[in-house]
Amino acid sequence: MSRYTVAFAGNPNTGKSTLFNLLTGMRQHTGNWAGKTVVTAEGQFTHKDHTYLAVDLPGTYSLYSNSADEEAARDYIIFEQPDVTLVVLDATSLERNLNLALQVLEITGRAVVCINLIDEARRLGIDINLKRIAKRLGVPVTAISARGRIGIDELLDQIERVATGEFRAEPLKITYNDEIEQGIAELIPMVEQTVGARYPARWIALRLLDGDHSLLASLKAHMGRKDIHVSEEVASHGITACH
Amino acid sequence: MESPHAINGHDPMDSLLTAAKKLADHGGIRDEIVSGIYGVSADICRDAVIYQDKKKLGSTYKLDNIVTSRIWGFPIMLAGLGLVFWITIAGANYPSSWIASFFSWIEGYLTSGFAAVHAPAWLHGVLVLGLYRGTSWVISVMLPPMMIFFPVFALLENFGYLPRVAFNMDRLFKKSGGHGKQALTMSMGFGCNAAAILSTRIIESPRERMLAILTNNFVPCNGRWPTLILLSSMFMVGAATTGALRTFSTALVLMGIVLVGIVVTLSVSWVMSKTALRGVPTHYTLELPPYRRPQIWKTIVRSSKEKSLNVLTRAIIVAAPAGIITWILGNVFVGGESVLNHMAAWFDPFAQLLGMDGFIIMAFILGLPANEIVLPILLMGYMSSGAMVDIEGLGSIKDIFLSHGWTWLTALNMMLFSLLHYPCGTTLVNIYKETKSMKWAVLSAVIPLAIAIGVTFTVASAARLFGWV
Prior knowledge:
The structure holds two protein chains of two kinds.
Chain A: E1 3-10, H1 16-24, E2 41-47, E3 50-56, H2 68-80, E4 84-90, H3 94-107, E5 111-116, H4 118-123, E6 126-128, H5 130-137, E7 141-143, H6 152-164, H7 178-195, H8 201-209, H9 213-222, H10 229-234
Parallel strand pairs in A: 1-3, 1-4, 4-5, 5-7
Antiparallel strand pairs in A: 2-3
Chain B: H1 12-23, H2 29-48, E1 49-51, H3 54-67, H4 73-116, H5 121-159, H6 162-175, H7 182-189, H8 193-199, H9 206-215, H10 225-235, H11 243-274, H12 296-331, E2 333-334, E3 337-338, H13 339-353, H14 358-366, H15 374-384, H16 394-403, H17 408-420, H18 425-435, H19 438-465
Domain FeoB-type G (chain A): 3-165
Pfam families (chain A): FeoB_Cyto (PF17910), FeoB_N (PF02421)
Protein name (chain A): 50S ribosome-binding GTPase
């Protein structure tokens, strides 16, 4: 019996922890406000023939390195390379939530998008065409209500398809303006040469263009270089770099 | 474009960044990236999402316009806080005395049991008067208010009100040089300071995070609520008032204490951001999540199970041995006085300056591991120091205090000291772990302690000067 890793990503307050608790039977506290998942929690669940290790990442709005939380979530997806990254979205504010999904898809295609609070959205009269979204994103998209326990089986099936490799994703690639695209194109060969094929070169190139020092520090640390201390320097003045 | 081969001797990673910087030298690239992503999101939603009724979506904003308005925001917040306190105090009063009488009824049987088997007096003293009494006080004093306060607070939290509190407080924190999210970590401190220290990770800037860490102690946590609630309901309200009015004024006093804590939080933030932690507040986005109807029973059951029982267990685990130690200290005599009395006498002159007494200071010192046990230790200290009173309900607890010369000033200053003094041991350990700095861990104990001493000294001196006591 094989065991797959599933990372739970999502904006704060999308019911990500509720879903996590439901699947793993863990009793993390869930409140209605941003930032309550402060430590990454791990749990386990089984579906059909497979066991999954579930990792609850801190709720974040983006994967840019704005805070220790965002760095933690980003580093987990890039360096631990979970078999599936489950992006939990809030059906009632889909447009804002999709941004995180798009950022995850820039890093990995091994993702399932899960639109939570679908019952609430229906109540508010929001119709969501899942097929269209799935077609655009290029990864499985399911609608659930973690609170109402709606659509959980379907979600688990989709996680299984991605985990086992039965589903091969071709995730949406965002095309930026010409200047950025040109920069990315020039950087990609260098990135590939430096960090190898293990990491998503296009995404790293994009982050470098944005001047993301903390990503570089994490890369250095994870590639087992001797100057690992860089990440600690960044974290001086009393800030924890959560790795 | 340089090729990576041309820069031998340099770290290839650094040269990558240099190359990237060259490509993006005009800045503003973040905006372009973000608008690229937002454009795609918006496009997908236009394609796949249909809103049948935009008005329905707006209902949550209507509520927000009121609860976060400049005029109504603060009054609603204060009224809400007052209401939570009122429910807690009104609801906890009777169960507390029932539980207390139940335990003292059991104690009678325990004592006769010990007498029946001719157990030595010291054994009865350690086990019944020390261990049993200590733990039963903790339970009867702390359990009822917690069983009410935590679920009510959790309901507000799950409803989605806390981010609105943060939104209202944001302006104040900005003005004092802190970060608006400090209001969120502060709200979390109402539950547990140790957990709130971890939650400061949501603050991006190291400087503002440090401010949030340093000031978190100034909101009363689980462990301190029972002390505050008990003391304010016993001492801070005139003896003449009864019933609903009494409960109401107790709630007002508690609210006053919380406000003092907030004022100190803002002042310390302001002073620190002008001195040791200088800087300009950074910008951030605060999400106001939609209001959600809390799952009432689930919330109540879960918060009772997780918070109330946890706090109580923690209190009992620490209070049980503390009860034994306090009893022993109170019954081992050196030179005609118990060790406990010697210790209390040593602290007494200093404590009197602060409007308290040596036993109180000693309780705070022994209570460093957990704030929950400060009050029980104090009671045990008083009890073993000779004034044996049978505890039957809150009235007789008050008698113990009165027989040790308590006045409203003693109670007020103990409340202020409890609010302001150093955080508990667990919190300090967390601060050290999070900041990786002994200096800041020590400062986060020393600064509050200095403020606590300063404030209580000032209050005591003023009260004496004006002849109020």
